[in-house]
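May I ask for a sample protein chain and its fold as tokens?
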Amino acid sequence: MQQLTQIIDFEHIEVDESWCFKNVRSTEQWTHGYHRYPAKFLPNIVKKLIEEYATDDSIVADIFAGCGTTLVEAKIHGKPSIGVDINPVAQLIAQVKTRAMLSDRLLLEYDKLVDTFESFKESDVQEADVHERLDYWFRKEEKNKIIFLHEEISKIKETDFRNFFLICLSNILKNCSQWLQSSTKPQIDKLKEPNDPFDAFQKHCKKMIKQNRNYYEELFENGFLDIPCEIRLGDARNTKIADNSVGIIITSPPYVTSYEYADIHQLTGFLFKYIDNLPEFRKDFIGTFYSNNQDTNTPTPSSQKIVDELFARDEKKAREVANYFNDMYEVGKEMYRILKPNGHACIVIGNTTFKDVKIKSAEIFFEMLLSVGFREEKVIKRSIPYKLIPAIRDKKTGKFTTLDNKNSKLVYPEEYILILKK
């Protein structure tokens, strides 16, 4: 590996207003609004990157596919795509979001499903096969309706329709539980009055059906209904995608010290039986502090400097950040392997601060990508609309908080779009 001795300074790059998309609600267009997802990739960014850099019919790839934003936009633009994500909940969301269905048939299935609500009897619900952890999050009355819903949806024979309604159910779980509504972190709100699952399901399903109709009509009109799109359950460090097969990568890696996606999606994971043991499930995720890896050595001098500085303040967090940098170096090598010569890698990534240590994830990953063979094309700085990502930490504890906290400060006010070429 080529050793770069000086960290690349992004701080003095001017914000490019054409990439900020202020007051744009693209997260509700097409099928993007099917399911809540933390730090959701802004569709307008993907749209602009596809239009500027996906100049042929080569495959568009997202190796941190999340809820499938890149894949949906690729299909809207008539581009074949492939996505990889380690989270089975994300895989299911992306599968459903990218699959356009005939509205009339979908409405028929919806009406049949809603008709079953009249047969609901709490005494008939069988709880034996449900993960015990759901008792922590749900009151009995909501839990029984959710179990009933899940059982009725599971009886639907056609996979596309069944998955569509499963995603609708998944999306309402948080509202129908005692999960603190304003928090992405798992915590109980004992004062919360959960939504009724049947009402919440019908309301969200009608919204999804309308969005599906718009998506289907757009694809049909442009002849894009049969454009290939694949979403794989897999690891961004080892995607199993063929060498030199992808024309462009458009992705947004998880933010260091930010989300534990395994925890955030645990309600769906337990209900759909994707998760049995949460601690074991966590260990495969990128940069998680649940990893068994305790090594604090990292691939570049600049990443090592950050880890060493953090180690003096918080050893556990230093190991987590070291895990993240080491994982991302493997991701960089994998990106180079799967891209065609002259293909572009477009990465949306931001920096943060923890206990007054600047964790320059964007600069570090850019440095790593150059070291594995990529050539610099462009670095874009954009401001982040406040509502799209939790941007407030407590200066003392480093934990996410609200603006009401006198120790609060913004930590993700901006992010970077790294554009490199193989």
User: Anything to note?
Assistant: The chain is about 40% helix and 15% strand. The two ends are 16 Å apart (CA to CA). Residues 197-222 form the longest helix (26 residues).
